[in-house]
Every structure is written in structure tokens, then in C-alpha cells.
Amino acid sequence: MKKLVLLFLLLNSVTFGQIQYPIAPGCEHFQEKIERIKCFNTYTADLLKTYFYVNSNVYQYFRLPSLNEKVNFQVGTSGEFRFKPHEANSLLMNHLASDVFYFFNRIQELSNQKIIPAKTGDGRPAILSFNIPINLPQNENFKYDNNKTPILFTVPNGNYVVRLGEDYSFHIYKHHELISTVYSIKDFYDHEILKPLTENVKNLIVEKKVKGKIIKLEVENLFKNQQGEIKISYFENEKLIKEFSNMEDFLTSSYSNHIY
Q1: d(Cα 144, Cα 89) in Å, to the nearest integer?
Q2: Exposed, middle or buried: residue 68 (CB in 10 Å: 0-12, 13-18, 19+)?
Q3: Percent of the chain topping pLDDT 90
């Protein structure tokens, strides 16, 4: 599968003075500050790569636009990552970064390995600030008409339709009435209507009658990235007609007209 995300990562402390740099898990044996910095950067880079790997199918399907912004964050006195949305960043990057740092903290909790926080000259835990550029290149063919909101999912249990908003949010409709909007992947996983989708290997995109035929589109492996690559299948009267192994091929095909 063509990788959706190519990352260029660089971390810089923006807090100076006599302070002991935070020590990331696996970096405890380094004594020199420059070595600890390098090891911390590698640790954070690996977390970021893991995040985008785990969500690679998701971000391909949700076809986010290209992003290249610098994000500020902190490592707190308990070794936790801290992030607050900032007006200098786009709304989409703020939502993405919130997901990223939530994921970082969950990984630390699940592995029971936390960063040893920075310390002041007299040994007290300290908060240290950093910035990180996040580069998310995207295929031009993933874009869509902003005047339209493509269907992402149909939820038969409750007759819900989930559409992608022009701000890359998730709009939930019931009988053509907007009932809820979700703005991040984390909130997607927590939402009572959307959460069941994340537990399925296959999800219905749309099913409707067109020119006397019942057409159906399904997406597979979307939330099961480790199990396989994304696959979109098109059926007519329950007969499989066409399969797509990536979003570029699907979105540039005539079959994608059914999601609008």
C-alpha cells in the first residue's frame, strides 16, 4: 500500500536555563544532555510513526488535505504529554494534534513506561516546552467538492448516515436531519453511534436503488489496519462487480459518484 504519511520530525526545547532534560523510556543509560535529547527525539518520533501507522487506513479513507505545520506541546511534571489547541495552527491541525498527544499518553499508560520529567537545578520536577513540525502530504485526488458532503458510512442499526464535512468533521444524520458532529478520531471512537463501526472489519458505505439495481458499497479493514489494507467493494444486486485497494483508484472512478 502506498503510505499516506511521510514524516519529518524535529524537536526543539524552547525552555532554556539550568535544567535537566526529560528522560524518555529506554534512554536512562545516557548521561550526557545531548545524548538524552537525541534519544528523546527518537522516542517521540517513533511514537508519531506508530500513531500514523495505526491510523493509516483511517486517514486514507477520510482523505485529509496536506498539512505542514509546527505544533507546540509540553512534557509535564508527571512525564505526560500536554497539548492545547493554538490559534497559530489550523483547526484541522489542532484536532489532529489533540489525537496525537492523547495517543502518546495512552501508549505510556498501557506500556507502564513514562518519561522521567525535566528537573530544575534544585531537583524539582519541571515542565518543558517543545515544538514539532508535522508534515502530512496528501494525494490531490483525495480532495472533493467542498459544496458536497460525501457519505462515509451508513449505520443500518438506527438508520444513521455519516458524512464528511468540509472542515473534515463527521456529521451524523438521521432521516436527513443533522443530530451530531464529531471533530476528531478520538471522539469518533468514543461516540455511541460511531464506536460500533470501529469494531467491525467491514462497514457499509451506502446501499440504494439505482436504475432498477440495488447497489452497495462496503469498506473493509478501515479500523483494522494491522489486519490488512483498506478495500472498497462495489456490488450490484449482491453480486461483486469491482474492488479497489486504495482511495485514489476509487475516488477517480465513476463508482465514487454513489457517495454523493
Answers
A1: 23
A2: exposed
A3: 59
Sheet containing strand 231-236, edge to edge, reads: 202-210, 213-220, 231-236, 239-244
The residue behind cell 455519516 is: 162
User: pTM score, two decimals?
Assistant: 0.83
Higher pLDDT, 81 or 120: 81
What is the SS3 assignment for the chain? CCCCCCCCCCCEECCCCCEECCECCCCCCCCCHHHHHHHHHHHHHHHHHHHHHHCHHHHHHCCCCCEEEEEEEEECCCCCEECCCCCCCCHHHHHHHHHHHHHHHHHHHHHCCCCECEEECCCCEECEEEEEEEEECCCHHHCCCCCCCCEEEEECCCCEEEEECCCCCEEEEECCEEEEEECCHHHHHHCCCCHHHHCCCEEEEEEEEECCEEEEEEEECCCCHHHCCCEEEEEECCEEEEEECCHHHHHCCHHHHHHC
pLDDT in tens, 6-27: 344 445 544 445 778 899 999 9
At a CB cut-off of 8 Å and minimum separation 6, what does 45 contact?
Answer: 7, 9
Q: How do residues 172-220 score in pLDDT, each as one tens digit?
A: 999 989 999 999 999 999 999 999 999 999 999 999 999 999 999 999 9
3: pLDDT strictly greater than 50? no
Tell me the CB-side half-sphere exposure of residue 51, using CA atoms within 13 A: 25
Q: How does 178-195 read in b/e, with b if 16+ C-beta sit within 10 Å?
A: eeeebbbbbbbeebebbe
